Amino acid sequence: MRILGVASASAALTLGLAGNALACNISEFKAEAKCDGTKGVISVTDKDPSGVKATVTVFLQSNGADAQQVGDAQVVEGTREGVTIDFSEDWKPNATYRVHVKAGNQVDEDIKPNLVTPSEACKSDETSTPPATPKPSEKPSEPAEEPSKPAAESPEPSESESTPAASTGDNAPSPAGDSNLAETGSSSNTGAIAGIAAALVAAGAGVMFALRRRGAAKTR
């Protein structure tokens, strides 16, 4: 009997510890203010391994009291890895929010401490950049050069202009008294010299003929 009692107590203790391990606890919930692009959100993460359904409600605080509820309450079933739900809220810097969790008969309390948002709000992606103004020292850009005009085409010369006039000096008759030899620089006494040469040739021929006759007479 004594051994049976010890065994029963050990089993009860083990079951109690297991039950406590699987019980939902407020420490398994975490709230955080974040930015989703340009919009603000309040994220609540449930890391309850038992998977107990929990209802989460978020309230904006003002002077220690609830000013307004953020959206509608949401239901989350936690896991060991964690499940996150988001509340869309355009939160202001350094604002305070109260996050309440109710999970069956196990949890019905706020996440402590209250959530305080960052000191800087979510920034917009579209930032207007003023156009750059030129400095006084910068010179204005010079205008582009105008394209040069094509040179005017010169008119084609007429037939009378392109063909040089034929020279008429070669076909004109030479003046009287001027021979062709005179035009080439020869002397005008060429005729007289030719006559004298002919006479000398004839005289030489006569002398040769006379000498031949004399020689023939001697041989006889």
What attributes characterize this protein structure?
4 helices, Immunoglobulin-like, three-stranded antiparallel beta sheet, 27% helix, alpha+beta, 9 strands
Summarize this structure briefly.
The chain is of the alpha+beta class and 220 residues long. The chain is 27% helix and 25% strand. A hairpin with a 3-residue loop joins β7 and β8 (107-110).
Structural commentary:
This protein is an alpha+beta fold and 220 residues long. It has a domain at 27-116: Immunoglobulin-like. 27% of the residues lie in helices and 25% in strands. It has helices spanning 2-22, 159-162, 180-183, 190-219, and strands spanning 29-36, 39-46, 53-62, 65-69, 74-77, 83-88, 96-103, 107-110, 115-116. Strands 3, 4, 5, 7, 8 and 9 form a six-stranded antiparallel sheet that branches. A three-stranded antiparallel sheet has the order 1-2-6, with no helix packed on it. A hairpin with a 2-residue loop joins β3 (53-62) and β4 (65-69). The chain is rod-shaped.
Explain the layout of strands and helices:
Elements: H1 2-22, E1 29-36, E2 39-46, E3 53-62, E4 65-69, E5 74-77, E6 83-88, E7 96-103, E8 107-110, E9 115-116, H2 159-162, H3 180-183, H4 190-219
Antiparallel strand pairs: 1-2, 2-6, 3-4, 3-5, 3-7, 7-8, 7-9
